[in-house]
């Protein structure tokens, strides 16, 4: 792994020209209003009675997302904690889903409730019935429906993420004033987008090595991960689809969500990350409108700071009045 992007000093000053769609706010206001009006079955929380865990209560959740469609999630509550609880809403990395509830225990151990959101079409438990095939589809989600913002895959997924916040804030075990969105890579990009779309409905954002930022730069320099899928697609369609593809992506760029976010945010970046290059992270971070801090991992690849970043997150949350709750406290 090598340092192939800008120097840290250059990254701190990096503010690329942004061609924001004139109707960006209208597009997302209409998208979310339509999703909320679609209704769907109310959020359902089914206790997992066969869990081997002795200190965590687990619920298998379905809540209404895009089009009112049921989205799977886990709600994990530390047993014995006083309610309502500070809560972390977790979004998942590319091609992953919510997995098993046994994979998500750290936040409970730290005294938080956790709401783990499945990714439609990527996770095992949530299909994507509205998927629009893409000509010359290259095997991932990066180009699915890219011919128009209305049909692009991430319109549906980002809407699900916002609706997850809507759902969890209504649960009686959750303190709606202490909800934090979090994720790494794709999950980081989704946490950033959600923070920009829900305003003060969240109290903080943990945005690790975020994907879905500064697509134009990412297409030029990312050497691994999902962005090469975009390059492959554009290579096939470079005579007639390049401008249209980037027009669609512009509605889903973390740079635009960042300027609309008001919650305090802790970002992280790996300076040797070939998947989400540092300049794409800083392009969003430098535009973030709320209070912001970034953990820089000089020799970090796409894993960033690993467990050391989790330690930074716990410190950062506590400093902002969002500590976990002690059992029985």
Question: What's this model, at a glance?
Answer:
With 329 residues, the protein is an alpha/beta fold. It has a single domain (21-319), classed as 3-Layer(aba) Sandwich (Rossmann fold). Helices cover 31% and strands 19% of the residues.
Key terms:
329 residues, alpha/beta, Rossmann fold, 19% strand, globular, AXE1_dom, carboxylic ester hydrolase activity, Acetylxylan esterase
Task: Summarize the structure in words.
- With 329 residues, the protein is α/β, with parallel strands linked by helices.
- It has one domain: 3-Layer(aba) Sandwich (Rossmann fold), CATH 3.40.50.
- The chain is built from eleven helices and nine strands.
- A nine-stranded mixed beta sheet has the order 1-2-3-5-4-6-7-8-9, with helices on both faces.
- Strand 4, helix 3 and strand 5 form a beta-alpha-beta unit.
- The chain is globular, with a radius of gyration of 19 Å.
CATH class: Alpha Beta
Named CATH architecture: 3-Layer(aba) Sandwich
Count of DSSP-assigned helices: 11
- Beta-strand residue percentage: 15-25%
Stretches where pLDDT falls below 50 for ≥5 residues?
A: none
Tally of strands: 9
Radius of gyration, whole Å: 19 Å
What is the 3D form?
globular
Q: Biggest sheet: strands side by side, in what order? A: 1-2-3-5-4-6-7-8-9
The ordered string of helix (H) and strand (E) elements is: HHEEEEHEHEHEHHHHEHEH
CATH H-level homologous superfamily name:
Alpha/Beta hydrolase fold, catalytic domain
The main sheet comes to:
9 strands, mixed
Structural class: alpha/beta
Give the integer mean of the pLDDT values. 95
Helix content: 25-40%
- Look up the CATH topology: Rossmann fold
The count of domains is: 1
């Amino acid at each position: 792994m090598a340092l192939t992007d800008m120097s840290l000093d250059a990254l701190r000053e990096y503010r690329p020209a942004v061609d924001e769609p004139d109707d960006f706010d209208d597009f997302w206001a209409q998208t979310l209003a339509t999703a909320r009006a679609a209704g769907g079955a109310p959020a359902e929380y089914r206790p997992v009675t066969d869990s081997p865990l002795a200190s965590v209560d687990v619920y298998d959740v379905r809540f209404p997302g895009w089009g009112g469609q049921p989205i799977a999630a886990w709600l994990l509550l530390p047993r014995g904690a006083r309610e309502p609880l500070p809560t972390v809403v977790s979004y998942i990395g590319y091609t992953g889903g919510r997995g098993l509830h046994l994979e998500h225990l750290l936040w409970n151990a730290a005294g938080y409730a956790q709401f783990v959101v499945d990714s439609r079409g990527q996770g095992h438990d949530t299909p994507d019935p509205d998927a629009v095939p893409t000509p010359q589809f290259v095997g991932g989600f990066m180009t699915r429906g890219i011919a128009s913002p209305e049909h692009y895959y991430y319109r549906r997924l980002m809407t699900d993420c916002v609706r997850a916040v809507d759902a969890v804030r209504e649960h009686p075990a959750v303190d709606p004033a202490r909800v934090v969105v979090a994720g790494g890579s794709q999950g980081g990009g989704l946490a950033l987008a959600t923070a920009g779309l829900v305003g003060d409905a969240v109290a903080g954002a943990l945005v690790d090595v975020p994907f879905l930022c500064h697509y134009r730069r990412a297409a030029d320099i990312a050497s691994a991960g999902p962005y090469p899928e975009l390059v492959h697609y554009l290579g096939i369609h470079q005579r007639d689809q390049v401008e249209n593809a980037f027009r669609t992506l512009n509605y889903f760029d973390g740079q635009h969500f960042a300027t609309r976010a008001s919650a305090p945010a802790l970002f992280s970046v790996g300076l040797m990350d070939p998947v989400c290059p540092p300049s794409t992270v800083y392009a969003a971070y430098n535009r973030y409108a709320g209070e912001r801090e970034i953990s820089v991992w000089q020799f970090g690849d796409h894993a960033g700071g690993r467990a050391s970043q989790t330690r930074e997150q716990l410190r950062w949350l506590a400093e902002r009045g969002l500590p976990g709750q002690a059992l029985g406290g």
